[in-house]
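Subject: mismatched residue count in predicted assembly?

I count 254 residues in my input, but I want to confirm that the predicted structure covers every chain. Input:
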Amino acid sequence: MGVNCHFSLVKKRKNEKLISEIDKSNLPNHVGIIMDGNGRWARRRGLPRSAGHRVGAANLKTITEFASDMGIRYITAYAFSTENWKRPKEEVDALMQLLLEYLKDKKLLEGNQVRVKFIGDRSVLTDEIRAEMANAEAESADRTRTTLFLAINYGGQQEVTNAVKNIANKVKSGEISPDEITEDLIGENLYTDIPDVDLIIRPSGELRLSNFLLWQSAYSEFWFSDINWPDFTKEDFTRAISDYQARNRRFGGV
Ligand code: FPP
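Triage response: the counts match. Full output below for your records.
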């Protein structure tokens, strides 16, 4: 047996053991992840912030594959917010470059059953990035096990504002009347058809939502920890799921 083969077997057994700790009948359908703490992770090691983003992006792949093996159907990861343009140009450029590399990396799509989709306003991204996004979506379109939504140039307030504009235009043209505006209609006018998020994981010690999935998080459970995203492991993910399973979700009922 080759060394690589041996390691992948050990990894598979370790994953299976972790997954066996979880009640498969009570998994969150949709998990949101705010990949925070990359900058601090890098600074603590005397590295540029972009090095933290690079390790963070690699970690997203690890955690997504693990979550998919566990049976999680939807994952949304916050990769770039509408507010992140305020960062120094050097960091914004590094994030865009990383995104491009991530999308061009065929291994992202090979060997797993993860479909990739994007939420956010693509109109201001470069032609090259938009083409790679469309390519990743098309290449992974028939994967059925797990959908990974990458939030890029995404803001929850902007998403709702955009939906309101679409609906206002339909009212103006006489296509619908104001009485026909329902929660479902607003949901249908968001960036894409995305289920409500059951669990939001935010590492790195911050306790806020930061404009992430505002509409879809009405009844989300939250899981916070001090770990920076590049250090967030499969064990941490398993703990988050297991803590979620101990919660009593009442959705406003008793
Ligand atoms: C927050 O950490 C993280 C971001 C603003 C970007 C997250 C992006 C990635 C993990 C990489 C890009 C993703 C893909 C899929 C290519 P921070 O920079 O705010 O960290 P800090 O709070 O420690 O400063």
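DSSP finds eight helices and six strands in the chain. Marking this ticket as 'not a bug'.
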